[in-house]
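The passage that follows is intended for readers who have already worked through the single-chain material. We present the inputs for a multi-component assembly, then the predicted structure in tokenized form, and finally a short commentary. You are encouraged to pause after the input and sketch how you expect the pieces to fit together before reading on.
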Amino acid sequence: MRSGLILIVIFAAVIAFPHLLPSPYLIHIGTLIFIWSFITTSWSYMGRFGLVSLGHGAFLGVGAYTSGLLFNAFGLSPWIGMLLGGLAAVILAIIIGYGCFRFGVIGDYFALLTLALGEVVALTIIAFRDITGGSLGFTLKSKGTSFWYFQSEEKIHFYYASLAFLILALLIWKWIDRSKMQKALRAIGEDEIAASTLGVPIIRYKMVITMISAFMTAVGAVLYAQYITYLNPHTLSGVAPSLEIAFKAILGGMFSLWGPTIGTALTVSLEEYFRVVYGGTFVGFSQIIYGLALVLLIIFLPKGIYGSLEAFFKRTKDH
Amino acid sequence: MFELYANALVNGILLGGVFALLAFGMNLIFGVVKIIHLAYGQCVMLGMYLVYTLVVQLKIPIILACLISLPVMGIVGVVLQWLVINPLLKAKANPLTQLLALAGLTIVVENLAQVTWGADLRGLNIQLPLISVGDIYLRTSNLIAFLGALITLGGLYLFLNRTYLGLAIRSIAQDVDSARLMGINPEKIYYITMAVGGLLTGLIAAFFSPIYAVHPHFGGSFTMMAFIIVVLGGIGNLLGGFIGAFVIGIVTSVSAVLTSTEIADIITLVIFIAVILVRPQGLLGIRISR
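Having made your guess, compare it with the prediction:
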């Protein structure tokens, strides 16, 4: 009951914030946090069941470039592009997921294989530079403020849109958590052979969760691309963003509903704090702190920051 | 046209020699410490920055700088074992957790390099003459690296097969419990292995320094390359890694001439994905239970 109240207060604060403190900079940071939380939450659908993908950059790239290229070439609405991008990511997820799950690639091997996948997509985008603009990326054509073209000159529109998307991702997390799939996947994550002996269709469940996660990640990428209106293979695919997605979620705690959001909020704020206080050259410092925190957390608190706090409070409540 | 392919082939072989050394270090660490050293390429990068600092900023002769980088990187290896890998082994972390911790470490190392040396390319700027054999041109720096790598690999082979310490390392790789019963202290061997692996990163850095200019994200591609080779040859299989290095060296070099460098990298990565899916024991490997 009390946690519900806290949630309502936080929610009200987040809604009212742009009106109480109309700073474009803070609204921008808020929007970035919502978009990346959406993506890290989508990542954690898989991650929490032991399917730790280090290649979600692949789905980002496929989603954003499908939608962005179709928009620039044919003026296709990003809302439709979002679905098509998601679909393209699902197709990629089916190909790679079926391969992995059919041949029983799990754990560290799954992580490394997906890491390579993210890089393949980045290199493909760079290689077809005639269409994609290669390493330089490309800018989305400007349509002013238009709902149909999902563009806006007002930052606040994206603030609320991305907040709505994030809430959707959290609701889907809840829905998965209550479904039969959750029980099956948890059993698979704990002991795959035992689960299969009990007749759990391993490949089917893993495929479904991978497809959902890939679709959502691609949708998040379109959201990001529409906000920034610039697509670049180094921010939307490849090793760096792939690792970043996984690490933000792990830092906050990939096993809990709010973990990825907390992790994203912390890392984005830390990075911005260093950028503002120490200037561009010392952005590296925030990354060093973040990396060190990550290594320490992974070794000593594998549940992440929020996950460990949650476990701590649960324990004290039981006593 | 023919000369172009011949050149690519020869350069691929030269590249393969250095790759073999790169993969050897990662393979040895995996075989003995049972950890995928995902920050291996980043250690090579640190070594290259060290050589750069010594040569360009402190004006130390290049040979001496290279000699200094060996023990320093060896110490880096030991420190890594002490601060990161040992705690992971003590916590009985599963392989995935170990992998993520080391991936986190790459972020620390890369950004440390960026803060210290900046994001620009740092090269030694030395021009060694080209050697021509008929229509084929060889870069002296590549040739030195290739020969140096082969000699080192020969030395390592003798070390692992002929010395007491080498045998101890191999016995730990084969069966930790039996080795312990024979009076070998695994923890000590882990430290020694990481020191040897560190020395190797220093040596590779010395070979790479005249060839490449280094930047903070330089290491990632080499970690990936080393890992691809290791998987191709069968994880823990030193001979397989040696052959795999030449396969990958030739494939990347020739396909880069045929298509573009990006397509060449895509081909290598697809080979890697296919091997993990279909033949995870590697092309030459024997399946080991983990």
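Commentary: The two ends of chain A are 18 Å apart (CA to CA). Chain A has a mean pLDDT of 89. How closely did your sketch match?
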